Amino acid sequence: MRIRMTTSTFRIGDSFVHRIVELDAPSSPVLEFLPALTPEQFAESRAWLKSQRALDDEDRVLICYQSYVVRTPQHNVLVDTCLGNHKDRPHRPLWHQRSDNRFMAGLAQIGLAPGDIHYVLCTHLHTDHVGWNTRLEDGRWVPTFPNARYLFSGIELEYWLDRNAKTVVPAIADSVVPILDAKQCDIVRSDYGLSDLLSLVPAPGHTIDHYAVTLGKHKTDAVFTGDLIHSPLQARWPELSMRLDHDPAQGIATRRSFLEKYCDTPTLCCFAHFPSPSVGHVKRWGDGYRCDYVNE
């Protein structure tokens, strides 16, 4: 297992994209993570997966938990907020009651403090994408980014608030509700245009109203995937659904559309969970696709 903090930076026109990695860690065995993956497909893929550091020696999927900071001439925008500290996640030991400074050190490494973030974009409201929305202060959860507006999809938010009202969903209770209470939330459609450079793009399937984020006046300079895809195996075979997808069929359609749209284009694709360096260009590979990574 490998755990480390990393930042990397890419310049795109007048904007900068920074990766902040909070954790690299194994998830479940690949045949559990992607239930439709056949043993034959896996055998064919094992070598290249290991060469990309996407698979460990126990055949577990290696996941990168990270955020992207987009610095445009106007705004500092944080896309997703990883795991967070002091969060009660007993079912996930590596996520449970974390107390390290990797994420905040990464933010400082790129020259920013929490008060410098103008917007927080949560592609969806799963635990590993909302953790640093809040921090613990005097026994209360308060917004980590005091000057930011947090953008939640209205459909996504309604779904999770309804579930939380029936049975407490810890990530919603400690990382989403406090943002509402602090009145720092903007409830938007998943096709919302934030500025002339940043737009939300509907990408449902993994969750009910998941969105991706595009950068550029023509929405083609870069795209931030969120969890519409988790593993390079899902590029090679887009029909492979991750085991926790809300609507697998919709997720497959979203993934195919994404991969086909950006295949063989100059758009920089910034993947949420692909192994480092996580950023690259989508290329055709037989009847599927692959990511050709780029370095900063």
Index terms:
15 strands; hydrolase activity; MBL_superfamily_lactonases; hydrolase; metal ion binding; six-stranded mixed beta sheet; single chain; 296 residues; Metallo-beta-lactamase, Chain A; alpha/beta; 9 helices
Tell me the CATH architecture. Answer: 4-Layer Sandwich
Order of helices and strands: EEHHEEHEHEEEHHHEEEEHHEEE
| End-to-end Cα distance | 25 Å
CATH class: Alpha Beta
Number of domains: 1
The major β-sheet equals: 7 strands, mixed
**Number of H/I helices:** 9
Q: Low-confidence parts, pLDDT < 50 over ≥5 residues? A: 1-5
What is the percent of helical residues? Answer: 10-25%
Mean pLDDT: 97
CATH homologous superfamily assignment: Ribonuclease Z/Hydroxyacylglutathione hydrolase-like
Protein name: MBL fold metallo-hydrolase
Keywords: Hydrolase, Metal-binding, Zinc
Family: Belongs to the metallo-beta-lactamase superfamily.
Domain Metallo-beta-lactamase: 64-273
Folded structure, characterized:
This protein is an alpha/beta fold and 296 residues long. The chain has a single domain, classed as Ribonuclease Z/Hydroxyacylglutathione hydrolase-like (Metallo-beta-lactamase, Chain A), CATH 3.60.15.10. The chain contains nine helices and 15 strands. It has a seven-stranded mixed beta sheet. It has a six-stranded mixed beta sheet with strand order 10-11-12-13-14-15. It has a two-stranded antiparallel sheet with strand order 6-7. The longest helix is centred in the last third of the chain and has 15 residues, at 248-262.
